[in-house]
Amino acid sequence: MYEYLCHQSPHRHHHRLGKLGQVLHRSKRGWVWNQFFLHSDVDLGDGNIKYILSGEGAGTIFVIDDNTGNIHATKTLDREEQAQYTLTAQAVARDTNKPLEPPSEFIVKVQDINDNPPEFLHGPYYANVPEMSNVGTSVMQVTATDADDPTYGNSARLVYSILQGQPYFSVESQTGIIRTALPNMDREARQEYDVVIQAKDMGGHMGGLSGTTEVKITLTDVNDNPPKFPQSVYAMSVSEDRVPGEEVGRLKAKDPDLGDNGLVTYSLLDGDGMGVFELSTDSETREAVIKLKKHVDYETKRMYTLKVEGSNPHIDPRFMSWGPYKDEATIKISVEDADEPPVFVAPSYTFEVEENAPEGTVVGRVHAKDTDVANNPVRYMIPRYTDVEQFFNINSEDGLITTTRPMDRETQPWHNISVSATEIGHHQDTKVRVNIKIKDMNDNAPEFATNNEVLMCDTVAPGKMIETVSAVDKDEMAHRQHFTFSLAPEVAHNNNFSLKDNRDSTASIYVLRKGFSRLTQDVYFLPIEINDNGLPALSSTNTLTIRVCSCDSRDTILSCNVEPYVLPAGLSTGALIAILACIVILLAIVVLFVALRRQKKEPLIVFEEEDIRENIITYDDEGGGEEDTEAFDIATLQNPDGANGFLPRKDMKPELQCPLRPGMGHPAPNSVDVDDFIKTRIAEADCDPTAPPYDSIQIYGYEGRGSLAGSLSSLESVTTESDLDYDYLQSWGPRFRKLADLYGTKDCPLFDADEAEDS
After folding, report:
1. Which of 398, 382, 379 is nearest to 390 (CA)?
2. Is 72 helix (H, G, I), strand (E, B) or coil?
């Protein structure tokens, strides 16, 4: 195997190989190729030998003269793309292409030149360094890469330098480590620096290639500045109508440091207002807040003085000598006179009252005060628009709030009302919000969380769990409070189902036997007692419905309805119910239609005021007179249906008239008898096709012909036309018109049965 070196060319020009032993040079810039060629010992120069070349780049990058064996490169070579090529050459007979000697393998190596500049692959870079760092403190290291061959010459030998960022930072030429170069760099003066680093190959010598990158360096904060109040004296004022807890004023010490380094805490050092005012710190703004601790009185004292200190709680020991890290300021607070409405001692109130507490239970007390010099009494009231249902009352003098009725937390857990305070003799008032929470009492029994039916296969095996039940309670559940479940006493020893309390507010239902049949019983009702274990403990009985269903061999439910074969004609329960409902609706429509038609055709009804009654009084002895009260109501004879509450229609007349029987149509004038009257009415009813059929026979007892005692009836008493005169009945009005027509007409040839019925 042979190795040949081939110089990399920076220009895209073809290279020619000279003859044996010759070295050709470009007429201008270029690289010199070492002459190499192939020659076989069997080559006599007569052109019978042909040289062939194969391998990497053969025919494309490298070509061979088949007559002379000279090898040429056809394109520019780049070591960074491929550093070497392996080729195979052979001499063969030109006419037969038979090898004349074994093939010869050789390697062409591409010699590197400096044609790639250094590169920073991860730029730009970002770095942090604490302010006030010592000179030489390491910031970060940057590294550049060069694609040239590091083993050949200085093409890949890099040297680092700083182009921008001096005199604050420097860089080590061999390692690329950036370090601080200036002491006491202050973040508060300048926080960010833009540094440019250069990497140059060829060891930094002239002609080397270079690359640059940018590094953004940020100074981080340290506690190197003490706090400072902008003013040495602060003036504040407070009105005498302010209540304790209200803010009087604020002040803040400046600290340019950040985070914990700039944190300032405040405290009161001295002053005659130490007991009247208090100091706190606002967690968001980091300001010192002066609040009123006690009431101030303009007439008693009008000026207070406080001394406040602000200090850093976190001090860096390296900068302890730069202290002290604290500052002081004086606050002068003046008291102002005010004529204001009453002021509640709290901006709002929140009270609690137990659920179901009796009427008059104390909820809480609100307090407002007149801060004027006069100190007028204050009266309280609840605006009814904030308590529409008037759940609460308030004592107008002392602000005591009480209930007017028991409260139900489940109906309304919170009541938000307002209380108004007014000075006597003034119209100004002040309102405050009062929030009243109803504390829960265990007054609701637990119940099932869901009321779904449990579907159970009729082939279920004993001991299988068919359902897990849970419960809910309208009351609030206490910590570690849970529900317990048990079967109701009446089913505690049943042979069908059992219950297991899981002690996690759930219970499991198990089957005790097998052989459930839907034909025998398709629904089971299992009463379950649920206890909430509260104070006091409450329980309820809830019924779990278990329906037996038909299932296949894989316990997949097929049907839970009544079996079709138990119904006639193969109809299901739903179909039968639908058919029966249709029949009932049709019957109701028919009845309604008939009733409406009867109402339209029969408007004339015998009303009670048109039913003229006459009492027939019977006496068992002679001369009972009006003292005998045993009587018969002749209305029953006239209208037997009216006695039972039915009023017949009288606007329909029979089309066919039944002839009166002899002796009935023309009774003798002196033979007016109830017996004849009844027989006449019966005959008319039998002949009337429009009269409803009466299937009962009513027997009326009366005294008529044949009585041993005789009859005292007014009908029987009339024996001649001249016995009594009833013409005066004509003047008695329409109510007695029928009687007047019946008894007042002397020339009546025929007894009118219809008129008798009306009378």
Report:
1. 382
2. strand
SS3 (DSSP) at 420:
strand
Q: What pTM does this model have?
A: 0.38
H or E stretch at 403: strand 400-403
- Hey, what long-range contacts does 392-401 have (CB within 8 A, 24 or more apart)? 392/363, 392/417, 392/436, 394/366, 394/419, 398/365, 399/365, 399/366, 399/367, 399/368, 400/362, 400/364, 400/365, 401/351, 401/362, 401/363, 401/364, 401/365, 401/366, 401/434, 401/436
Non-local (6+) Cβ contacts of 736 within 8 A are 612, 729
On the 0-12 / 13-18 / 19+ scale of CB atoms within 10 A, 475 is buried
Q: What pLDDT digit, counting tens, does each position of 392-426 carry?
A: 999 999 999 999 999 998 889 999 999 999 988 77
Q: Considering Cα of 401, then 402, then 404, then 409, what sign does the dihedral take? A: positive
Q: Are strands 348-354 and 429-439 parallel, antiparallel or unpaired?
A: parallel
Q: How many CB atoms lie within 10 A of CB 654?
A: 12
| Residue 598 CA: distances (Å) to CA of 591, 649, 690 | 11, 10, 13
Residues 6+ apart with CB under 8 A from 327: 226, 227, 228, 229, 253, 309, 310, 311
Quick one: tokens of 241? 């109508």
Pairing outcome for strands 429-439 and 71-73: unpaired
Strands of 94-134 (E only): list them.
104-111, 125-130
Task: Please state, in angstroms and rounded to a whole number, the distance separating the CA atoms of residues 34 and 399.
Answer: 115
As a whole number of angstroms, the distance between CA 291 and CA 278 comes to 5
**Percent of the chain with pLDDT strictly greater than 90:** 38
Mind giving me the DSSP string for 217-270?
Answer: EEEEP-S----B-S-SEEEEEEETT--TT-EEEEE--B--S-GGGG--EEEEEE
